[in-house]
Amino acid sequence: MSRTDAILSRLLALHPKLIDLTLDRILRLLDDLGRPQDRLPPVIHVAGTNGKGSTVANLRAMLEASGKKVHVYTSPHLVHFRERIRLAGKLVSNRQLNAALEHCERVNGGKAITYFEITTAVALYLFAEEPADFLLLEVGMGGRFDATNVVEHPLGTIITPVSVDHIEYLGSKVAGIAAEKAGILKRGAKAVIARQTDEGLAAIESEARKLGVTPFVAGQDFEGFEQNGRLVYQDNDGLLDLPRPRLAGTHQIGNAATAIAAVRHFGLPVSDADIAKGLQTVEWPGRLSPIKGKLSALLSPGQELWLDGGHNEAGGGVLADSLRQMNARAPKPLVLIMGTFANKDATGFLRHFGDEPVAVFTVPIPGDRAAWKASDLAEVARGLGLKAGPKRSVKSALEAAAEVKGARVVICGSLHLAGNVLALNGTPPV
């Protein structure tokens, strides 16, 4: 076990629950740390169910294209914890991370606090100690009572598409979930809202009115769409004809448009050329990413290997739509390799694919959290009319997929599984 993992194991034992949504504990620790949340560079706070990380990645790429130094906080990580904390453009070093973890552990003094709360305090402490031009701060879960919601005066807030996820904590109604996400809105801070369902948007706008905030809304105030292989963005300030985002998938058009809307609505120092460069250089591993290396070598010539960490019903929908677009351009038989956690709606995820997969191979997810058994997940897939069978591991599933000539093989269903895949492949995020 590494030093980092040993510290994180101790922190995990400080609270009996992994998630316990309230701000009391982190505010107490931040006070004891000297209130680092008051010493941050301008903050852009991002909540939503899907697309948070991709929107943040696009924004970071655009700001860095303009020469700005950017702190970034995202979760979860895929392979190594330090992926969550980017200091002025670079992942935090193991030395810096361990020192900050141990400092916050000492200051906390063994008091009850959840893993995400204390590690968020660590991130804020690090961000306050190193200069940067901006901080992109991604919500972990919900918004109103998320540990990141301690910045009183952000430069701006963003809410990406809201759908049903984490129902045991946020409920099963989109309106209620959206209202919780809208808890990050702040009086005096501009807000950009990605395209939402009618009920989701109504809930967000209701929360905004209470704060005197007039949100900048996709479909009303700005729009982004693909045309002739390009991204066209339009708002009241004019139209931009831009390169298509480097990130694959039709949903990335909306994520990129949300990031561009933030650049323009928040008045960020980013030129149109910087926006274009950011779209061409953005990276966000594990989100419909092509995989090359040890695992792709298990497939047959002419096959493709892709990885996507989407894990809820909406994630299944955007993945299925993106794969249909791929297939329209370059037809290939589709094979899914899927693993997901037991609290996820596997039926909702898979139903979006119709009868398009020629095979679904289900796999377990290594680790402590409860995951669907591969046999049970295969039964769910068969109940939808899919040809499905369980496999012992990702490697054995790939070996089975290799028998489908010319297939497009997609590993999907979980960011945790995506991290396992990248580790197996020897290609962790850097």
3D structure, described in words:
With 430 residues, the chain is of the alpha/beta class. The protein has 2 domains: 3-281, Mur-like, catalytic domain (UDP-N-acetylmuramoyl-L-alanine:D-glutamate ligase, 3-Layer(aba) Sandwich); 289-425, Protein-Tyrosine Phosphatase, Chain A (Alpha-Beta Complex). It is built from 15 helices and 17 strands. It has helices spanning 3-12, 24-32, 52-65, 94-108, 115-129, 167-170, 174-181, 198-211, 251-265, 272-281, 313-329, 346-350, 374-383, 394-401, 415-425; strands spanning 43-47, 70-73, 85-87, 90-91, 134-138, 156-159, 190-193, 216-217, 222-227, 230-235, 238-243, 289-290, 304-307, 334-338, 357-362, 388-390, 408-412. The strands form 3 sheets. Strands 4-3-2-5-1-6-7-8 form an 8-stranded mixed β-sheet, with helices on both faces. It is globular. Belongs to the folylpolyglutamate synthase family. It comes from Paradevosia shaoguanensis. Its cofactor is Mg(2+).
